[in-house]
Automatic annotation (TrEMBL):
<feature type="domain" description="FAD dependent oxidoreductase">
    <location>
        <begin position="27"/>
        <end position="373"/>
    </location>
</feature>
<dbReference type="InterPro" id="IPR036188">
    <property type="entry name" value="FAD/NAD-bd_sf"/>
</dbReference>
<dbReference type="GO" id="GO:0005737">
    <property type="term" value="C:cytoplasm"/>
</dbReference>
<dbReference type="InterPro" id="IPR006076">
    <property type="entry name" value="FAD-dep_OxRdtase"/>
</dbReference>
<protein>
    <submittedName>
        <fullName>Glycine/D-amino acid oxidase-like deaminating enzyme</fullName>
    </submittedName>
</protein>
<dbReference type="Pfam" id="PF01266">
    <property type="entry name" value="DAO"/>
</dbReference>
Length: 423
């Protein structure tokens, strides 16, 4: 089994739900028990309690990215609004970003309404500007704030400014996914764990334990999509890794801030991301782990010592401390060829995903959208530009391996060159 995240470990032993025990009939069958599958089931059950909804997961709900991520419920979308506007028009682009911003509040609303204690705190997100090159880029952003304002939120080293957005909440991702699973069960949804979807086709999900037949099938596998028959080139599973410190003393937080649990990053190109947890740890992650040939996903890929060391060193660089690290983990996220997440329903098969690491809020929006599509509701959500989008497939190997890893190396090199020039 993959190394568990700190989030999952902090909740104690996992008690798995029973696996599928033979063929089954349903109205909606969902492959994947992460945020996308659970939110879809939640909104379906709330809208039409008579529908028989079944969720299948290869391991347990939240085993994948939903239980391993950085805990940012953010309004970030991997395609910039200007690029969306060129393709879909300015109104559609604005609607997409506005819907994601509103989704941050929707997650908080549902968590409160359903009694899901997931340490939700909407403090916004701050991207620190820490070099002249970053400053030149950041000053063009409408969310730009000066050095004094940025430092007041997050007192890191060498801060020249920042980009702030209110559309982000920090949360405990495993508490959210576990609470969602319990909630949908209470609403009548059936969950079968330890049941891997081997094949999806119109009207059925085939597993080694039986086949679930349903007029609507939902593929909600995110980075694990590549392991499904016929989908190896649809999504590239690229690893993101995380560390979490032991609880840090009050004097550290008095100096650093993050008083409203603002999530934070900086303007380097190779993504990093952090949050102050509810129990005063730093949870900190980033990219840099290699993509593996053939879109393979294996437990040993979760642990890359040099990436963990780089993350620890970045905490030292940012905050001048050398903290005790309590936990290290990783996992794959799903990247489509054009970095454009999508939601859709065609010929009885629905799908959502390709969130490029910004899936905590996007999965909620996707679940609401899929519920409307499945129920035949024409809404503002079903007219968003990601609905029905189809990314072109990734190149065959070895081109895929060469291209993705070359891109990772080039990104790291550009950051290193900027740091040298700033020194």
């Amino acid at each position: 089994m993959n190394s568990p995240s700190f989030w999952l470990s902090s909740l104690g032993p996992i008690e798995r739900r029973p696996p599928l025990a033979g063929d089954l009939a349903a109205d909606v069958a969902i492959a994947g028990g992460g945020y996308t599958g659970l939110w879809t089931a939640y909104y379906l059950a709330r809208a039409d309690p008579s529908k028989r909804v079944v969720i299948l997961d290869a391991e347990f709900c939240g085993f994948g990215a939903s239980g391993r991520n950085g805990g940012w419920a953010s309004g970030l979308f991997p395609v910039p609004e200007a690029k969306l506007a060129r393709r879909f028009g300015p109104d559609a682009a604005a609607a997409m970003h506005r819907a994601l911003g509103d989704t941050v509040d929707e997650i908080g609303r549902v968590a409160a309404a359903e009694g899901i204690d997931c340490d939700y705190a909407k403090g916004g997100t701050l991207s620190l500007v820490r070099s002249p090159a970053q400053l030149r880029r950041a000053q063009r952003d409408p969310g730009f704030v000066d050095a004094a304002t940025a430092t007041a939120m997050c007192h890191a080293t060498d801060v020249l400014g920042g980009i702030y957005s209110e559309h982000c909440a920090a949360l405990h991702p495993a508490k959210l996914v576990r609470g969602l699973a319990a909630t949908v069960e209470r609403l009548g949804v059936t969950i079968h764990e330890s049941t891997r979807a081997e094949q999806i086709r119109t009207g059925q999900i085939k597993t080694l334990r039986g086949t679930v037949h349903a007029p609507t099938i939902v593929r909600a596998l995110e980075g694990y999509t590549a392991g499904l028959a016929g989908h190896r080139r649809d999504i590239a599973p690229v690893y993101s890794l995380m560390i979490v410190t032991e609880p840090l003393p009050e004097e550290f937080w008095q100096r650093v801030g993050l008083a409203r649990r603002e999530t934070f990053t900086d303007e380097r190109r190779l993504v990093i991301y952090g949050q102050r947890t509810a129990d005063d740890r730093l949870a900190f992650g980033g990219r840099g782990a290699p993509y593996h040939f053939g879109s393979k996903i294996r437990p040993e890929y979760d642990l890359v010592p040099e990436v963990f060391e780089a993350l620890r060193a970045t905490i030292t660089e940012l905050f001048g401390i050398d903290p005790l690290i309590a936990h290290r983990w990783g996992g794959p996220l799903g990247i489509p060829r054009d970095w454009m997440p999508s939601v859709g329903l065609r010929d009885g098969i629905a799908w959502a995903g390709g969130y490029v690491g910004d899936g905590v809020a996007a999965a909620n929006l996707a679940g609401r959208t899929l519920a409307d599509l499945i129920l035949g509701v024409d809404s503002d959500l079903t007219r968003l530009p990601w609905v029905g989008h189809r990314s072109r497939r990734w190149e065959p190997e070895p081109a895929r391996w060469l291209g993705i890893n070359a891109g990772l190396r080039a990104t790291a090199l550009l950051d290193a060159l900027e740091r040298r020039r700033a020194a």
